[in-house]
Every structure is written in structure tokens, then in C-alpha cells.
Write a structure and sequence with these properties.
With 263 residues, this protein is of the alpha/beta class. The chain is 43% helix and 16% strand. The protein has a single domain, classed as Alpha-Beta Barrel (TIM Barrel). It has an 8-stranded parallel beta sheet. The structure holds nickel (II) ion.
Length: 263
């Protein structure tokens, strides 16, 4: 059994062949797919896909690059969407200082409001971070203190740092927060030595495997549209790096996702 804990099946790049994409994932053993939203429309579509396909679950949230779509009623609309039983997380949320589609202050405000919503609903968070990991971790550290004070059981498994690309020190801070570390296709790239070295140091019990499809296709499909079935290539690479059996890697990472998303 395999899980793809991050895939944007709602994107229009899948409009022509979504059924076949899901069939291919099924055939390879993918039994759970998490579709995070990037804005309210996308979150609504993610929920609708979770109703249509048994293996699809949804996260709802506004991505930092879509921050300009944020409105005063966005939190209440997300809260309402999150009542659907296949919504298992708030995401993807975070900070993106690589693209400047949303002013920094607004990104930070939206991020914090959605973290508060997650705490209120006892839902874990799916975090996007690009050239912003130190700032993201500072905000998550404050959030964790609040969770601890309110004795929230969310503190045990509060979320995942999706498509992790930080160094050893930042990974250490992420682990101290009890966050899972999401590994995507770039771990298979020939020039990914730093990420591969990091993965070797991290216990399998703290990793989630993801595609981030349609993006980040693993080797040998780099640059092509990605899809959930290719999560297998990520699992195979992790098995190779850890010198562990493929089945052990999929068993452990599948159990990790079940602990986080309670699915
Ligand atoms: Ni994503």
C-alpha cells in the first residue's frame, strides 16, 4: 500500500484524464491521496473530488501565492468547508518569499489566521515554504506553544512541512515541533545530494511521501506532468537511500500518514 500525501488533482491539467490518472494510481497500490486546496475555489473542488473518489481526501486552505484572494469571510468559509468528513487538514498554507504574488505582511497574517483555525478545529496543517523556512518555523514555534498551553492533542502530530528543502539545522527544528517532513520527486534527481544526505539522516518514522503533482515529477520524468502513481519512485529512492526494503518504507510512511491525517 502507498499514499500520496500531497497532490493537486483539482488542477485543470488533470481535466482531460483525471479518471485514468486515478486508475493508474490505484493499479500501483496508491490507496490514499491528499488533495490540498490553494484558495477557496480549489479547496471546494478538492472536497468535491473527495466525494467522487474513495481514495481522495481533502485539505482546505489558502496558499501564500493566492493571498490576494483572501477576504474577510475566508476563515468562516474554510471553517464551513472543513466540516466535510473527508477534510483531514488545513492546507496548503505557509509563506513563499520566492514569488512575490502576495505582500509579506499579508502572507504572514493569512498564515497565522489559518493556523488558528486549524487549532480551533483540531486539524493538522500542510505547510508550504519557499525561501522562508526560518520565518515559517518561528511562526510554527509560537503556534506550538499555544497548542501546548491549551493542552491540544494536535501537539502530538501537528502537521507536515511539505516538499522539505531545508538544511540539517532547519530539519532539526522541524522535528522538535513534531512535524513530519514531506519528501517529493526532487530526491530522485541526480544533483540532489544535499536532500539525499538529509533523507538518510532522518528516521523513516518522520517522513511522508508526496508527489506535489502536477509538479515535481521524479526522475526519469523530470519536467513532465506528475501524477500520484509516481509516488512509487519517491518511495523506491528512499528505500535505496536507507538501504531498506521497499515494502518496509511504504508500510512505515503509510502508517505515518494515517497517524497524521487519522484516515
Ligand atoms: Ni502543493
Amino acid at each position: 500500500m502507498l499514499v500520496d500525501t500531497h497532490c493537486h488533482l483539482d488542477f485543470n491539467s488533470f481535466d482531460k484524464d483525471r479518471d485514468q490518472v486515478i486508475t493508474r494510481a490505484r493499479e500501483i497500490g496508491v490507496e490514499r491521496v491528499l488533495n490540498p486546496g490553494i484558495n477557496l475555489a480549489s479547496s471546494t473542488n478538492a472536497v468535491n473530488l473527495s466525494k467522487k473518489y474513495s481514495e481522495v481526501y481533502a485539505a482546505v486552505g489558502v496558499h501564500p501565492n493566492d493571498g490576494l484572494s483572501w477576504e474577510s469571510d475566508s476563515v468562516s468559509r474554510l471553517r464551513k468547508l472543513a466540516t466535510h468528513k473527508k477534510v483531514v487538514a488545513i492546507g496548503e498554507i505557509g509563506l513563499d518569499f520566492y514569488r512575490d504574488r502576495t505582500p509579506k505582511e499579508l502572507q504572514i497574517q493569512i498564515f497565522k489566521e489559518q493556523l488558528n483555525l486549524a487549532a480551533e478545529l483540531n486539524l493538522p496543517v500542510v505547510i508550504h515554504s519557499r525561501e522562508s523556512l526560518a520565518e515559517v518555523l518561528e511562526i510554527l514555534e509560537e503556534w506550538r506553544i499555544k497548542l501546548d498551553h491549551s493542552q491540544s492533542w494536535l501537539a502530538e502530530y501537528p502537521g507536515v512541512l511539505h516538499s522539505f528543502s531545508g538544511d540539517v539545522q532547519l530539519a532539526e527544528r522541524t522535528r522538535e515541533l513534531n512535524f513530519f517532513i514531506g519528501i517529493t520527486g526532487p530526491v530522485t534527481f541526480r544533483n540532489a545530494e544535499a536532500l539525499q544526505d538529509l533523507v538518510i539522516r532522518l528516521p523513516l518514522q518522520e517522513l511522508l511521501i508526496e508527489t506535489d503533482a502536477p509538479f515535481l515529477s521524479p526522475h526519469p520524468y523530470r519536467g513532465k506532468r506528475n501524477e500520484p502513481a509516481r509516488v512509487k519512485l519517491v518511495a523506491e529512492k528512499i528505500a535505496e537511500l536507507h538501504q531498506e526494503a521497499y515494502n518496509i518504507v511504504t508500510e512505515i510512511t503509510t502508517a505515518n500518514a494515517a497517524r497524521l491525517f487519522k484516515w
